[in-house]
Known about the structure:
Blueprint: H1 32-51, E1 54-56, E2 66-71, E3 80-90, E4 101-107, H2 108-115, E5 123-129, E6 138-140, E7 145-147, E8 150-154, E9 166-172, H3 179-190
InterPro entries: DUF4365
Pfam family, one: DUF4365
Protein name: DUF4365 domain-containing protein
Amino acid sequence: xxxxxxxxxxxxxxxxxxxxxxxxxxxxxxxxxxxxxxxxxxxxxxxxxxxxxxxxxxxxxxxxxxxxxxxxxxxxxxxxxxxxxxxxxxxxxxxxxxxxxxxxxxxxxxxxxxxxxxxxxxxxxxxxxxxxxxxxxxxxxxxxxxxxxxxxxxxxxxxxxxxxxxxxxxxxxxxxxxxxxxxxxxxxxxxxxxx
Length: 195
């Protein structure tokens, strides 16, 4: 995986570069894209923990980031069902996107993998929207840890490739990815349905 190289000085809470002591703590110099990947994995882990799911990371990664498994007595197809999750993260979309969906562009190779049908193990795309400035990504207090902004999910099975190298897909804003949504997805899959 190729990551962007960090610029010297790091980003401060206000998004400006320069003297670390001038505006908040001195943040590490990892590329912002690498930090975004880490944040979305933390979100997935929190959702899976609250939903009572286990996580496995395929190695080597073949275009799918995580396998999420759920055991429940109500599953008809098996005692444990699994879905595959592809994570994406962007700061190019504001929180609370207007309308019933927002646009997200995928490389065609990724879309082909996510759109394949029929499949033995269903796949979903989870897209996290974050503020541009890492200092605004989370807020901790005595009673909560708040991550900003939100993850949304969709099932792209059967979606057609329309662009030459990249295709824009629509992500429904009603599909917030949280523990309840994950349990509902697993319940549908456990009954032999789609996510």
